[in-house]
Structures are given as C-alpha cells and as structure tokens.
Amino acid sequence: MKIKYLALSLGLLMAGIATTQADRLVIKGSDTLGAKLVPQLAEQFKAQHPGTTFDIAAEGSTTGIAAIIDGTAEIGMSSRRAKTSEVGAAAAKGKHMKPTIVAFDGIGVIVNAANPIKGLTKKQVEQIFTGDVTDWSAVGGSGGKISVYTRNTSSGTYSEFKELAMKKRDYASGSQKMAGNEQIAAEVGKNPNGVGYVGMAYLKASGTKAMPVDGAVPTVKGVQSHSYPYWRPTFYYTNGDPSGVAKEFVDFTVGPGGQKIVAQVGFVPIK
Amino acid sequence: MLRRRHTVVTIAIHLRDETTTIPLRNRLGHNQEETTFMKKLTLAAAALCFALGGTVARAQDAGALLDLLVKKRLISDQEAEEVRSELVKESATTSAGKWKMSTPITELELYGDVRLRYEYRGGRLPGNNQGDFGQDHLNDWYERHRERYRLRVGLRGTLADDWFFGLRLETSASSRSTNVTFGGEPSGGPFAKGDDGVFVGQAYFGYTGFPDFKFTGGRMPQPLITTSMLWDDDINPEGLAQQWKHTFTFDLGGGGGEAVQSYGKEGYSKEGKAVVAQAGEPFKLKLDVFVNTAQYVYDDQNPENPIGPSPVVGSGNGSQTGQKIPSTDAFMLAWQAGARLTFPNNVYVQLAPTLYNYTGNGDSFNIHYVGDPNTNQIGINSLLVFDLPAEIGWKLWDLPMRVFGEFADNIEGHDRAQAAGHPDHTGQHYAWMLGGAVGQLKAKHDWEIRAWYQYAGQFALDPNLVDSDIFDSRVNEKGIAVKAGYMVADAISLNLTWAYSWRINGSLGTGGIGDIPINPLDQYQIFQADMSVKF
Asked: Residues 94 to 113 of B: which have CB under 8 A from any A CB?
C-alpha cells in the first residue's frame, strides 16, 4: 500500500514538474520589444492560458539572438535582422534562425521639448549622430553643444539606426550609450541640448518632442507603407518553427488579440 | 540553388492552398486565381535571378528585390523575411559568406606574382692597369649562374571618404631586388628557409578627395615617371608623394558636315550600288598635364643628438678621415612636371622633366662618393640631377610601337668629381639612353621586343638607385640591352633579357655596388630567362 502510494505521489510529482516546465516560456532580447510590448502580451496570454509563466529578459537584440543559438530561450526578441555571422553560428550548432515579424516600428529622432529646432534633414541626422556636426547652430538651432544619446552595442536599435540613418558610419566618439529607449527619452527630456532616437512607442516621453526628418515623423501609415525612412520590422526568432507554448504565444502575438496590444502600446500592427 | 528554389516554391504552394475552387473577386476587382498565378510567376522569376548569381551576391542583392515584391504586394513582409533568412543562411554556410571585411572598405583587390628565373651574370676585369688601381688577374672573368624565384603578394583597396591603402609582401630584403636564389641558404642544410624570408615591400595609404589630386604616404610604389637608367623598378621609396593630373580635350573639328558620295572601291555595296561614305570623325587631341612631387626619407640619422661628442669619419677615407659627420636625416626631393599629348589613332608624345635634389646627410651615405676600387661607392654628395624621360608612341597595323629616350645631367657633377679626387674628369656627369619597342604584353599571345643603348657617366647618377640588372648597379658604364616577352596566357608570361656593357672611362672605377664583386667592371654581360604568373 505504502509503495503504491509512493509510486502514485512520484508520478504526480513528475507530471507536475513536466507540466510546469511545458508552461514556462523563456523570452530574451530586444529592449524595444521587451520593455513594454512583450510583457503586456504575456499578461494577456496568461489570462487566457492560466498556468503559463514567462521569464522575460530585455537586454538587447543581440542577447536574444544569442539565446536562440545557445538554446537558453524559446523566443529571441529582436529589433534587427540576424547577422550573417549569427546565422552561421546557429547553423554550426544545428539551429535554424526562423524570423517571425510581430510588429513594425519607426525609429524616431527626439530632442528636448525646449529645443527651438523644427525639423532635420536626413543628412543632418547623419551629421549629428556621426559627430560631423557638434553644435545646434550648424543645423538651424540656437546654439549649444549637441549631446548625443544612443543605445549600447548589444541593441538592435543601435545597429538599425546606424544602417538606416548613418550609412553604417560610426557613432560620434562623444555619444553617450544608454541601456534602453526609456533611458534615452529620460536623458533627452532633461538635457536642453540632447538628441537621441527611440522606437515609436516612446515618442511621447515627457520633456521630449519628435523631430520631423525630411518633413516626416513616424506614423502608422508611413511605417506600414514603408515610406518613412527609418521604418523597421521587429521579430521573434525561434529555432525553426516554434512548437508547444512558444507556438501558441507567437500565434497569439501575430493574431488579432496580440496585434490590438501592439497598436495600443504604440507600435504598428503587421496588417 | 535547388534548395533556394524549393524555398520559393514552398511559399508559392502555400499561396495556392489558400485559394478556393470558386474564383473570388478581391477588393481591386481581380480574380484571386489570377493574382496567385502572378505571385507564383514573379516568385519563380525571382528564384531564377537568384540562381544565376553568386551566393553572397544573392544574399546581398535579395533585399532590394524582396522589398520591391513587398511594395508591389506580390508577397508579404513575412514571406520576404523567410526568403531573406534562407538566403542569409546559405550565404553564411558557404566559404565566401564567412568572409568579413571591416566597414570602411569599399573595394579590395588581392594581387601578386610568382616568377622563376635563370640568370647568367658575368664581369671582366680590365686588360691593363689604367687608372693605377693595382689590379691583379687582368682580363679575368667573374661569372655566376643562378636559378631564382620571387614572390610578391599584395592587397590594395579603397576606403570610405576617398581614402585608399595598399600593402605588399615581397621576398628578399634588398631594396633593388625581390629575388631569392635556389640553394642559396647560408646554413640549415639543403632547402632550408634561411633566405626565403618575406618582407614588407609596400605599406602606404593616401587620399584622393580633391579632384585631380592624389596624396600618398608610406612605403609606396614609385609615383614618378622614371626609367631603369635612374631607378631600379624594384625600389619602393619611403616618404610622401603628391600627384596632380588634369586632362584637357581639344575638339579641332574636321568632322561632321555632309556625307560625301564615294565612287572608289569602298563606295559600292555588294550589289554594286554606290553607297554614301561616312561623315568624317572629329579630330580630337587629349592633353594630360601632370605634376608629381615627392619627399623621400633617404637615410635616417640615428640619433640626431647623441650623448657626448658627435661622431667623425673613420680611418681609411682619405682626406675625409676625422671630419665631423653632420647629424641630420637625408631626404631626396623630386619635382616633376610633364605632359602627354595624345593624337587620334593612338599616337602620343610624353615628356616628364624632373629635378632630384638631396638634403641632409643621414649616417649611411654621408661619406663622399669616389667610385674607384676600395673607396666609397654609395655617397650622395653633390647630386642635383635633372632628368628628362621622353617617349613617342604610335600604332602600325594594330601593333603598338614606341621610341623612348632619356637624358640626365648631374648639375653638381663637377663638384662630385672633384670631391672624388678626379678634377680631370668633371665631364662625366651625363647619362642618356635611346631605344625602341614593338608590341605590348597585356593579353594571351601578345609579344614585345625592346632594345636600347644606355650611357651613364661616373658622376651623373645616384649609384644606389640605378637598375641592379642592367649594368649591375654600376655607373661609368655604357652598353646595350634587349628584352623580349611573350604572353603564354593572360596570366603567364615568358621574358628574355640580355645586356652587354663596357667601361666608359678607363681611368675611373665603376662606381656602385653590384652582384659582381669587381671594380672596375671593364665588361659586363647578363642573360635572364623568366617565367612569371600574375594573379
């Protein structure tokens, strides 16, 4: 009897452990996605799938892609495409980096709300962030040494902005590296001479204003039609086609319920 | 290639599965089956384009094509990302896809050559003791037969913002040679690698951001227009160079107007009907004007300011013994301004007058040059050389031909002769050459023959720079040289070289340091047979 009881308890315990592991989803990567959007998606998903737990770490797109390569996450959030070297590293380990577009985003240039400047050209944006221009007076402002705020090197936004707005040139040597969109917005909001870039979801941060670039600010229509110059897709990367709870969460994100949250947070839905 | 087609076809099949058997009208009023068919057709075309290109190029070029397909709503963003991802994965797993170049590089070229050579080189001592050099073994020959090879491998490229760079590794540490002798290892047994070292032959970078200008710094390929009479073409000078070149085109008319009815033989068609001759071509002249200047570091004085008294000339240097040695670096400055005038039908004339002057002293070439046996052979005192290389070229029966010549005068040759203790031979400050060439060596089956006569006075030129093969790096020599070449394939060439020279002034030595260790070099002969592969 005791043995039967022990066997039953052991079996229930193993089933419980198995169930717990199957409902735990590890998601790592982009701060752009992971600071606000994915946690809100996770909350809504949990409401529909009780028992599911999420482990979300938003330390930059590079960390998300690396997590798929080394198998420490089921989903890697990324605001940039995986590099050839990363795809190669994944293939060498028998992994296939499958991208799923979950939202579109427009990278907006922000300045302090007190900055009198009304807009910038694409050339001026390149000049400011590469350090060719160091004073606001050179781009039609009232004067003052420009303080450039950027993301750090593990950020997908850092790489995408370099490619889209800076012709792959290096950032200005004096630029200050911040951990996330909120940090950039906070610093620009405090510094009258500050300039930085953030995703669309952070364009309305207190103390900042979005700069039209060649007359355009990121809008839903401009990003969906790809006419805004700094538009980009954002991704979930998985090792091949996702399965289990990962597949359910991916399907939820790209489905109507998830895309509604995408729009509410300030990103652009994929449809 | 098949896998990539498979990827694209898979997407197309997925689209097909979404259609129903009943044709539906979409918002635009088009039949959905027709839309799906157009999508599949477009994807198939895209797959064919990808299949025809290189793997890395496909991955890189796919972006624009996929963006266009998305823009035209033929595929979705997700489908485009899946195709892009497949291409990147294919690229990443090929050897070409594993190459990574730093971002500033916009263009990169790998190049080089390997050459095998057989060489005979011989020199004869004088038949008498004219000059009182106390010569033994009169009329005796010194001869060498050598089998040699050389390797040169380089990278050159352009960088962002109008910068460029280059580097080249070469065999042999000599400034005037890249050759290594088979079996010439001093120790280590047969086939040892003691003398098979590789050295930095070139390492330079420069800027071309100003129109018509080019600035270069480093150890560089020769930027000046020169010949082997003054400069061995293996020398890569070190320092700075500035080049300016501008092209003027003059349209002198002579063409246009009405076409002329021709009744000559050429004026009839196959059917025997008279045809109108073509209107005449306009007569155009092209004038390339150039200015090249250079500041070469000839010899570094180390140190410029030593502890204690400055060094003095050592014993055995005649009247210079005990003289204080100046402590400044030695520089060679070059000032060249010239032009090339090109007429129609490949006729051209080129002149490149140049002045070379030397400043400072350094610590290796600062003893006065003499040039006689057992005296200084390398001093650069009293050298102010005016040089005028010239060339006229044309084509006859599609065969390039040219006549070339050069005249050089050491304006301070009198001083150089007197400093050498030869006040009676101050006239030996001229050098000149005259020759001709037929053919060219550019592509498979091309051939070229060149021949010239050369005269170099004892005090005319810098003996540290003259060609090391033709006349064995010596001055006070005159003679003839013949070269013949043939392109076996686009990258493979055969070349034969023969030269013969004899001493100009029997009272003087033959200044310079060559491979034949005799002075005076009364007669000299060299034969070389080369086979080269260029990549």
From this structure: 97-98, 100, 103
Q: Across the interface, which of B67, B85, B97 has its CB nearest the CB of A97?
A: B85
Q: B517 with B455, same domain?
A: yes
Per-residue pLDDT reduced to its tens digit, B307-329:
888 778 788 777 778 887 667 89
Are A97 and B100 in contact (CB < 8 Å)?
no
CB pairs < 8 Å spanning A and B:
50
Q: If pLDDT is split at 50, 70 and 90, which confidence band does B246 have?
A: very high
Do B86 and B109 have their domain in common? no
User: In terms of C-beta density within 10 A (0-12 exposed, 13-18 middle, 19 or more buried), how is residue B311 classed?
Assistant: exposed
Q: Rounded CA gap, B39 and B33, in Å?
A: 10
Residue B476's nearest CA partner among B433, B518, B498, B508 is: B508
Contact between B126 and B520 under an 8 Å Cβ cutoff? The reply is yes
Choose the closest CB to A84 out of B81, B82, B97. Answer: B97
Identity of the residue in A85, A96, A101 whose CB atom sits nearest the CB atom of B81: A101
Residues of A in contact with B71 (CB under 8 A): 226
Residue B80, H or E segment: helix B77-92
Mean pLDDT of A46-71: 93
> Is the interface score ipTM higher than 0.90?
no
Give the residue among B395, B293, B419 at the shortest CA–CA distance from B343.
B395
Q: Which domains are assigned to chain A? A: 2-105+233-265 (3.40.190.10), 108-217 (3.40.190.10)
Please tell me the predicted confidence (pLDDT) of residue B177.
95
B445: pLDDT strictly greater than 90: yes
Q: Chain A window 135-194: which residues touch B at a Cβ cutoff of 8 Å? A: 168-170
